[in-house]
Amino acid sequence: MEHSQAVFVGIRGRVLALEPGTGTELWRTRLKGGDFVNVVLIEDRVYAATQGEMFCLDPATGTILWHNPLKGLGTGLTAIAVAGTGSQSAVTMRRRQEEDEAAAAAAAGATVAM
User: Fold this and answer.
1) What's the start-to-end Cα distance of the chain, in Å?
2) Are residues 26 and 50 in the same domain?
3) Taking the model in full, what pTM does it have?
4) Phi, psi of 106 (to 5 degrees)
5) Helix and strand numbers, DSSP H then E, in the chain
6) Best CA proximity match to 47, nearest among 65, 35, 61
7) Domain containing 15 — which CATH number?
8) pLDDT by residue (tens digit) across 74-103?
9) Host H or E run for residue 113
């Protein structure tokens, strides 16, 4: 299954990938601790933060690609924010797609009317 079709869940020090139509677990990766895990999918990587540490995972397999312990910053909750086009929300991307489709339809209609 393509990773863009998976649902990623962070829970109790783990990240799971689920098949969205059935909820079937595709993979599970243990990170650190047993607490909240903040998860975000950016392009072709899953980023997860837990216990004050950052992880980068392969969305297809759950393999940890890299880990940064963020030394000296403690073990509190970690927020993830990303700049650039890869961080667009699904809503923003869908709105742009709809605008592009409407513009293409309007252009096609103008061509037919001529």
Assistant:
1) 45
2) yes
3) 0.68
4) -65, -40
5) 1, 7
6) 65
7) 2.40.128.630
8) 777 788 887 765 545 555 656 677 888 888
9) helix 90-113
